């Protein structure tokens, strides 16, 4: 099975590089230097030249604040170019797995969002990702779109790595308590992708369409941070962990509005795969144990810069 992976240096991309190393699978990884999503021809060129049997797109403009300042760039990378990639895949009958976000919703729900709930993004990033979803759906029937949320990994540049960095510098860390979502470990998303590819290989088909793909237990950013610090403290990475002060979103103004409630109901995917994604606390434990196993001074958080 020849697999082509875009966005190979991102959180999900890196995790996919590990899980997609399987016997009989030939993985080609493509980064921004080889295919910049502001130039759709570069992206579609890879599909035309390498004729993979499966394509995974983990590339995206993910800077939520930056998208407010560069809306056209976000729209091109997350919207138009996804449409071009999907059209190229469709023309060669190549299935495509693409990733999207809980930020397509406005965050006003009182229960976890299902796939058929109305979308209404409240920031530019969310709107750009929604555009990509719609173009994908319009041009390529053989697609799986996985909406995920609050992605974290051991690599820098996500909420967990940022909190651990701050923990090493401060005695108090202020975190919003009024944003709720489902943290999701990049490795667990990659496992889902590997399962889907395997299933396609076995059945030469998949139940195509849109799936929510998050860990099952929603929490606030405040609760999430407390858990990260407790786990890091238990592994000896923090001594002691800083105090976590709960604040509200209006005390932490940002350029882009964030949905207050972004929990995703991933039961459709769980039904397909026979089990839900693991609880996010397993991913936090894995990260802290990996960091602790390295010989670094406890006060210097290693991931993390
Ligand atoms: N991170 C989250 O919390 C979150 C939440 C919900 C959904 N998602 C979605 O999940 C997917 C994976 O996210 P992630 O957390 O793995 O993102 P990430 O770590 O920010 O990685 C994004 C990847 O996209 C690449 N990229 C950015 N601009 C590009 C361009 N113009 N051309 C080609 N490649 C470009 C980046 O390349 P460089 O390394 O060169 O920058 C990087 O490899 C995305 O679709 C994202 O929208 C993420």
TrEMBL record:
<comment type="pathway">
    <text>Carbohydrate biosynthesis; dTDP-L-rhamnose biosynthesis.</text>
</comment>
<keyword id="KW-0560">Oxidoreductase</keyword>
<dbReference type="Pfam" id="PF04321">
    <property type="entry name" value="RmlD_sub_bind"/>
</dbReference>
<dbReference type="InterPro" id="IPR029903">
    <property type="entry name" value="RmlD-like-bd"/>
</dbReference>
<dbReference type="InterPro" id="IPR005913">
    <property type="entry name" value="dTDP_dehydrorham_reduct"/>
</dbReference>
<protein>
    <recommendedName>
        <fullName>dTDP-4-dehydrorhamnose reductase</fullName>
        <ecNumber>1.1.1.133</ecNumber>
    </recommendedName>
</protein>
<comment type="similarity">
    <text>Belongs to the dTDP-4-dehydrorhamnose reductase family.</text>
</comment>
<dbReference type="InterPro" id="IPR036291">
    <property type="entry name" value="NAD(P)-bd_dom_sf"/>
</dbReference>
<keyword id="KW-0521">NADP</keyword>
<comment type="function">
    <text>Catalyzes the reduction of dTDP-6-deoxy-L-lyxo-4-hexulose to yield dTDP-L-rhamnose.</text>
</comment>
<feature type="domain" description="RmlD-like substrate binding">
    <location>
        <begin position="1"/>
        <end position="291"/>
    </location>
</feature>
């Amino acid at each position: 099975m020849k697999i082509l992976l875009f966005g190979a240096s991102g959180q999900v991309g890196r995790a996919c590089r590990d899980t997609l190393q399987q016997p009989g699978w030939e993985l080609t990884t493509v980064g921004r230097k080889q295919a910049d999503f502001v130039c759709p021809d570069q992206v579609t060129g890879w599909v035309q030249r390498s004729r993979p049997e499966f394509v995974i797109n983990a590339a995206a403009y993910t800077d939520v604040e930056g998208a407010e300042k560069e809306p056209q760039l976000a729209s091109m990378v997350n919207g138009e170019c996804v449409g071009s990639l999907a059209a190229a895949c469709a023309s060669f009958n190549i299935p495509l797995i693409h990733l999207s976000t809980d930020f397509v919703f406005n965050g006003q729900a009182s229960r976890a969002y299902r796939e058929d709930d109305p979308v209404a993004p409240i920031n530019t990033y969310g709107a750009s990702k929604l555009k990509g979803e719609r173009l994908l759906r319009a041009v390529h029937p053989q697609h799986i779109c996985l909406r995920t949320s609050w992605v974290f990994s051991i690599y820098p540049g996500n909420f967990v790595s940022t909190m651990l960095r701050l923990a090493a510098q401060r005695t108090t860390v202020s975190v919003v308590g009024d944003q709720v979502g489902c943290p999701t470990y990049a490795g667990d998303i990659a496992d889902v992708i590997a399962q889907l590819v395997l299933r396609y290989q076995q059945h030469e088909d998949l139940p195509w369409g849109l799936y929510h793909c998050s860990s099952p237990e929603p929490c606030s950013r405040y609760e999430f941070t407390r858990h990260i610090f407790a786990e890091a403290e238990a592994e000896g990475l923090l001594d002691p962990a800083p105090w976590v002060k709960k604040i509200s979103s209006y005390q932490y103004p940002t350029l882009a509005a964030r949905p207050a409630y972004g929990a995703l109901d991933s039961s459709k995917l769980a039904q397909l795969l026979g089990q839900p994604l693991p609880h996010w606390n397993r991913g936090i434990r894995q990260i802290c144990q990996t960091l602790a196993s390295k010989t670094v001074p406890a006060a210097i958080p290693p991931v993390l810069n």
